[in-house]
Each structure stands twice: as C-alpha cells, then as structure tokens.
Amino acid sequence: MIAYIKGILTAIQDDAVIVDVQGVGYEIVCANPFVFQAELNNEIKINTYHYVREDTQVLYGFKNEDVKYLFIKLISVSGIGPKGALAILGSVDVNGFVEAIEREDDKFLTSFPGVGKKTARQIILDLKGKLTSMVTVSAEGDSNQPSSQGTSEELMEAQEALKALGYTEREIKTVIPQLQTEDTANTDEMIRKALALLMKN
Question: Most C-beta atoms within 10 A of its C-beta, which of 22, 151, 157, 192?
C-alpha cells in the first residue's frame, strides 16, 4: 500500500495533482486539488490511499491523515464509492461531518450529492461511534459559536450561488480552502469573501 507520495508538485488539474518523484509523475486524484495551490513547483508530501480493483488502480490524495481516515471509512459504507466519498470530502470539514453522524442528522448528510435517505442512514449505522477519536464532539454544542454543521451548509450554499453567478467549478475550488477557514456561518458574507478572492486571482 502506498501511504504517501513525496516529490515536486508539478501540476494541478480539476480533479488531480501531478507529483514528480525522481522523474516519475504520479497522478493523485483529490477532492479539491487546489488546497495544494501554494505548494506548486515545491516539494510536497501528500497522504495517499492506493485503491485497487480488478479493472482499476487509482491513487487518492489527502491534505492530512484525518481526511484520509474519513475517506477510508466512507468507502467501507455500502452505497458509497470513491467518487461519492470525494464529493463529500470536497465540501465539508471533518469535525462537522463527524458531529452530524453522532447527532444522526439525516438532513445534513442528505445535502451531499448522491447521498439519499437510505445512504445517510447507512452512514450513521456503520460509522456512528467509530470516528469520535478524530474530533471532540459536543452533544449540545456551544451556543456562542457557529456550528461546524452550519458552516458546512453555508459553504455549499455559497458554492451554488457562485455557480449561479457564472463562476466555473475550477474557479470556485481555488477559494474553498480559504473559505473553510473563515469563522462565519453567514452565506452572504461567505459569498462576498469568495468574490473578493476570485477577483484577486
């Protein structure tokens, strides 16, 4: 199993990055390749999962071990393949997703592409209690802080609004990492910050 790839990041594509390791270019499929934008042309270490089936071999890449672990757990759920897992990871923070599972929040889980009520219940059934070691989950939540769930939902709403304004998926992906670090659960404010970032690019 290939646990990680370390080399020069030579290219960023819509759904993958290319890392040169001593003259060999490894294509690594990522949920959001643009999280590695700042490392372009520099040496980088990417956590990877080597997905092997009879008819395919794919290297999937992740920003850190927590995201990789969540990916591995997601593809173990009946009804979720690698593409479905990447779609989830591309627009949610780990804490928010784990909290939603622990709360059995079907509504939040079904907000992701390809996740219906049946799959949401399967995710809860298979993963509840198995991911809490990754994060500190609060049953009640802090009323003075925006919840991770809210932030994730607002981020998805902001993405849809940007698409409606004519921005491409590629352009939007370049600003998602910065939006995910913003301490706000307000869609309008998130859209304004995204537009400001997009105009700088």
Answer: 151
